[in-house]
Hints:
- By secondary structure, the protein is of the alpha/beta class.
- Helix content is about 40%, strand content about 20%.
- It is built from twelve helices and twelve strands.
- The protein has helices at about 1-20, 35-45, 60-70, 80-85, 110-115, 120-130, 155-165, 180-190, 225-230, 250-260, 260-270, 275-280, and strands spanning about 25-30, 50-55, 75, 95-110, 120, 145-150, 180, 195-200, 210, 210-215, 220, 235-245.
- α2 links the parallel β1 and β2.
- α10 packs across α11.
- The longest helix has 18 residues, at about 1-20.
- The radius of gyration is 22 Å and the shape is globular.
Amino acid sequence: MQKIAVVLSLSLLAWGVAEASGPLRVNGSTTVNPVAAEAAEILRAEKKMAISVDVQGGSSGGIAGVGDGSIDVGMSSKPVADDDRRKYPAVRFVATEIGRDAVALIVSADVFKGGVHALTKRQVQDIYEGRIKNWKEVGGPDRRIIFFNKEPGRGTWEVFAHWLYGDPKTAPAVSHPEVGGNEETRTKVSHTQGAISQLSASWANQSAVALSIRLDDGSIVAPVASEIVSGRYPMARPLFFITNGPPTGDAKVLIDFVLSSRGQELVRKHGYLRLADLKVR
């Protein structure tokens, strides 16, 4: 009888541990967050799931959280890098694409209204590295350029740096003021005359206006769906949910929901391209 009691106690203890394991932990990219947050809200209401969604550390924070086991699902607007895999050799990173986005260069409304609607890669490099300091040098108003730089390691910054330099590791050190998430970036640019920054294109508005890019052949491409699908816009990027191994349990429920037709409509609702949109290419 004593053995039976011990086994029963251990079984109840194990059951208690499982019950106390807490909610599904989701963290990372502020770009992916609107989709994840709304999907979580639906799943809480309809399936009574416990899901915690946060945006600490951007894409790098999401990848690192999966790596160290502090979260279950990482949100990321950049792929898992070889450096991440080397840092967490015991982790089997699995990235599930849920949609596609573009990084835009956004400027304050006064710059756009002053005549700056498109920039070349060389002009962006010269602005980023401080060789061009006034908007009048690129056809804009006589106003000092203020560059709010995304924190290195964020997916948005890495897409930008990859476009400019081929490899983010070769990007030069700069001393611009740094910004974190999309909301902070948009607010800073909107309220600062002469400002420019990198931002998810879907977050641009009339106060933080997305610029087009003038390609080497002189043609101009904007960060819009048709140019992303065609491959002409150079700063497009996939959006991911990242797990340790193939998703299981509640993580699989969340990811399967976002991949469903209903979930993909959330992707579209928040300004991103659905996976089905990419198949027309």
